[in-house]
Amino acid sequence: MQPGKPSRFSFVDEGEAVRRLKVDRETLLELVASKRLRAYPGVGKGNFFRVGDLEKLAAELHPAPAETPSLQGVDLLNPTNQRRQHDPGYKVHIRLQADLKWYDLTDDDLKAYVRELHPAAYEKQRSNVTSVIERLERLVALMDEAAQRWRSQGKDAQKDTGQPHSTDAPSSK
Description:
This protein is mainly α and 173 residues long.
């Protein structure tokens, strides 16, 4: 769902709220804590947010600039055929979902691929694989940093209130 487009739903999840407000998750939680945005608890750990509340807050956080026509994503030969542009967080989410298909591959599948690999394609495919590994390692490092912040915020909240605080952060193994 792109910001500015009407929603079929009255409520959206945290990920969509972050995208619509163009903020990070920590800022979203600060907006809830400061009572600028109301969160509605869902089943499990996630919260839901009213679309109307998000639209009002988004207009407040990011006032609309003067209307200027944008040619980004427009085919000049066919201006009505606009391509959908995904925001960066959603692109990563979609890629991770697609990459889950790697679990379906066995070692025999990988060996069969290598047997069929053309020598001319070896360098390009090897470069692709190593680039993906680097990107995924960077993503893991960023996720670990975020989890550490969540844990430290939870400890700070415990000290302030004297009560246990849930952070939604995954536990380390």
